[in-house]
Amino acid sequence: MGPATATRRRLWSSRASRQQAGAALARILIVEDNLDLLHTMSELLSDEHEVMMTDLGETALELAQRHRPDLVMLDIQLPGIDGLETGRRLKDSVGPVPILVLSALAQSEDTRHILESGCCDAYLAKPAPLAKIRAKVEELLGTTHHA
Prior knowledge:
Strand content: 15-25%
Structural class: alpha/beta
Number of helices: 6
Number of strands: 6
Low-confidence stretches: 1-10, 15-22
CATH class: Alpha Beta
Oligomer: single chain
Number of domains: 1
CATH topology: Rossmann fold
Order of helices and strands: HEEHEHEHEHEH
Distance between the termini: 43 Å
């Protein structure tokens, strides 16, 4: 197994550096095969949320079963099972978890196909401004996570 394969099987987790008094942390699962973007998203969100990260759809399914995230951030173009299939399987296996798709597939027909697939609750085209990502995450968590 080469270094690239070994990297693909890693899981990263970071707990929020600060927890508000008495508030439960929302658990966010980020599924992204661009490792730089994966870590950027983690840094953006881990100050207020518990963040789990992986770069594979298969691993995301296992993590979601074990840890029941409050929100999933999902790329579409993943190695192995793609984000559309990962999203469908997540909805079937863990129930109504909100899924935010972040994808470089930004043509109108791609966007329509992603939204009509039923695999996600919201969609942002990459690259999206970090403030817009954070706002969308908080909006989606506000509908499901009660601290």
